[in-house]
Design a protein that fits this description.
single chain; 164 residues; alpha/beta; four-stranded mixed β-sheet; two-stranded antiparallel ribbon; globular; disordered N terminus; binds zinc ion
């Protein structure tokens, strides 16, 4: 299969909390988290994010204060996959359980890198695409980059995420 066909088939899986995020992390003055810790499920994903950050920049980043947890829904919005919520000086990432359970390991990595891009790096969405292939140029595309795409262009995505 030609590369561009592969790209067209799998580059977009779904929206990253479009309605909730409005292009950036959701900043909420009325939200109060139900969580006081992070689900251990996400420990390895946070570690991988921190490791990739270190590999790319030579600097350390600590995501331990960002709690990541599963929820069934957010504000009756059914289309979200995950969302970073900033409230006061605290940050929460909420991940939809049914979506998480339905996708592969590499896509899980893409989701958490994207959400930590919001919550740990303060990045907004970047919907630039490669004009020839249609490939999203950033993990911060408002539609989550598929795991297959992430791994196919791993170096490019990590470099873009952590250096720009
Ligand atoms: Zn997002």
């Amino acid at each position: 299969m030609k590369l561009f066909q592969l790209i067209l088939l799998c580059f977009i899986l779904g929206a990253c909390g479009k309605m909730l995020e409005e292009g950036d992390a959701k900043v909420s003055s009325h939200y109060v988290s139900a969580f006081t810790s992070s689900d251990p499920t996400f420990d390895n994903y946070k570690n991988d994010f921190e490791d990739n950050y270190y590999q790319e920049t030579g600097l350390s980043i600590n995501t331990s204060a960002i709690n990541i947890n599963f929820v069934d829904s957010i504000e009756e919005n059914s289309s979200f996959i995950a969302v970073c919520i900033i409230w006061g000086n605290r940050k929460d990432i909420l991940v939809k359980t049914t979506y998480w359970d339905a996708v592969g390991e590499d896509t899980k990595q893409s989701i958490i890198h994207h959400e930590l891009g919001h919550c740990a790096l303060g990045k907004g969405h970047n919907n630039e695409i490669d004009e020839k292939t249609g490939r999203p140029l950033s993990l911060m595309h408002s539609n989550i980059v598929s795991g297959t795409m992430f791994m196919s262009f791993f170096e490019e995505y990590i470099q873009e995420l952590f250096n720009q």
